[in-house]
Specification:
Glutaredoxin; four-stranded mixed beta sheet; about 230 residues; single chain; alpha+beta
Length: about 230
């Protein structure tokens, strides 16, 4: 068997973990960290293939910067007070800290994540999907960067190894829009109503930023059942 054929078979034999996620979803970054911690304890981690899927929690978020901060924006969308919104964000900050993440909502910029998802799809085509997710999460939740700004997306893409010209061409066209829409449609078909949502080996689902043991147990169960 030719070498490339062997590599193809090896990749096919890996257990796929599909993760529906949104860059502006605070629980998605926490879920990513919990899942990564589970993988560190999973003896067959090398046999896992992670596939990131696009999902927008709020497609109606303005594409241009709004004068509202994240506290005000959530309050207006949920019909609650700004004080209640801040309290909710404070609870998320504590949860994130437990996962090793230092969220800074005071710096966060309300942004539509559609073009960021297209960047992720471009990155996936170069086997850089996970790097793109990590970079965008960090930019939004920790560094307070505008992840809807095209110049910012070009810079973030360059940092993970993408060509600036490819990113610019993508952003100035409809490239990878079909991939984003396809992921969203697939989410509806399998009943995803919120993210993060993990589908392991096409048979087991984990919804939300569950504790590390939940991810580890599900990985072990799915892997054992393959045998």
């Amino acid at each position: 068997m030719a070498q490339h054929d062997k590599e193809s078979v090896q990749k096919t034999n890996k257990m796929k973990v599909e993760i529906w996620s949104d860059i502006v979803c605070p629980f998605c970054y926490i879920g990513k960290r919990h899942f990564e911690s589970a993988l560190k304890s999973f003896s067959n981690a090398d046999d896992i293939e992670i596939v990131w899927k696009s999902y927008q929690l709020d497609p109606e978020t303005p594409k241009q910067q709004t004068k509202q901060n994240v506290y005000e924006y959530l309050a207006s969308r949920k019909g609650i007070s700004v004080e209640q919104s801040k309290s909710m964000h404070d609870n998320v900050v504590k949860m994130a800290f437990s996962a090793g993440l230092n969220y800074n909502f005071d710096k966060a910029i309300v942004a539509n994540s559609y073009d960021a998802h297209r960047l992720i799809q471009l990155a996936k085509s170069k086997n850089l999907g996970d790097a793109a997710e990590e970079s965008l999460f960090k930019a939004y939740f920790i560094e307070g960067k505008d992840i809807a700004n095209h110049e910012m997306l070009i810079n973030l893409g360059k940092e993970i190894g993408l060509e600036a010209s490819s990113i610019k061409t993508m952003l100035e066209s409809n490239q990878f829009s079909d991939e984003v829409e396809r992921d969203s449609y697939e989410a509806v078909q399998i009943g995803v109503s919120g993210v993060p949502f993990f589908v392991i080996d096409g048979r087991y689902a984990v919804s939300g930023a569950q504790p590390v043991p939940v991810f580890l147990q599900t990985l072990q169960k799915a892997f054992e059942s393959r045998k």
